[in-house]
Specification:
CATH superfamily: Fumarylacetoacetase-like, C-terminal domain
Helix content: 10-25%
Number of helices: 3
Shape: globular
Mean pLDDT: 95
Largest sheet: 9 strands, mixed
Number of strands: 11
Structural class: alpha+beta
Strand content: 35-45%
Order of helices and strands: EEEEEHHEEHEEEE
CATH architecture: Alpha-Beta Complex
C-alpha cells in the first residue's frame, strides 16, 4: 500500500510519500513526537483507490476510487525548515508514525465538492507511479498549516455527523 499526498509546505504544493505506520485512525490520540517543538497540520481529503491505474486522465479518475475520508496531515515544521535549509530529506518531518489522521470513510458522492480537485490529484500522482487497489491519495484542502498543541481536538463533520476526531496529546 502506498500513501501519497499532494500537500502544501511553505506555500508550494509538494508530493510526499508516507508509509503505513503513518496512519492514525479509530479516534486514537495523536502524540506529539519528542523530536519537534512545532507541530502543525493541514486538513486533507483522502481517496481510497479501488483499481489499478497508470497515466489516468482527470476526466476518468473518479473510476479509480470508491470512498473519501476527511483527515489531518501532521508535519514537524521545525524539522521541515531545517531539512529544507540543509537540502536533506523531508521524511523525518513529514513521514513519522501517526502523521496522517484518517476519519470515517464515506461514499465518494458525499464529497462531490472535492471531486474535481481529487480527480486532478489522482491524475497527477498516476503520471509518475502506478496506483493500486488499497492505495491512499490525499489532498490538502488549504495552503496554511494550523498549529497543533497538547489538548487540541481536530474534528470534521459531514451532514451533522462527526467523521473525524483526533485529540492531540
Amino acid at each position: 500500500m502506498k500513501i501519497v499526498g499532494l500537500t502544501y509546505y511553505f506555500g508550494e504544493q509538494e508530493m510526499v510519500l508516507k508509509c503505513d505506520s503513518c496512519l492514525l485512525n479509530g479516534r486514537k490520540p495523536m502524540f506529539i513526537p519528542d523530536s519537534t517543538k512545532d507541530l502543525r497540520f493541514l486538513p486533507v481529503v483522502i481517496a481510497r483507490i479501488s483499481r489499478l491505474g497508470k497515466n489516468i486522465e482527470a476526466r476518468f479518475a473518479d473510476r479509480y476510487y470508491d470512498a473519501i475520508a476527511p483527515g489531518a496531515d501532521f508535519v514537524a515544521y521545525d524539522r521541515l525548515s531545517e531539512a529544507r535549509k540543509e537540502g536533506k530529506s523531508w521524511t523525518q518531518a513529514t513521514g513519522f508514525d501517526y502523521s496522517l489522521a484518517i476519519g470515517e470513510w464515506c461514499p465518494k458522492e458525499d464529497y462531490a465538492e472535492w471531486r474535481d480537485a481529487l480527480d486532478e490529484a489522482i491524475s497527477k500522482v498516476s503520471e509518475t507511479m502506478t496506483i493500486r487497489q488499497g492505495d491512499l491519495i490525499y489532498l490538502a484542502t488549504g495552503k496554511t498549516p494550523h498549529c497543533a498543541a497538547k489538548e487540541d481536538i481536530i474534528r470534521a463533520e459531514r451532514n451533522g455527523e462527526e467523521k473525524l476526531y483526533c485529540k492531540i496529546k
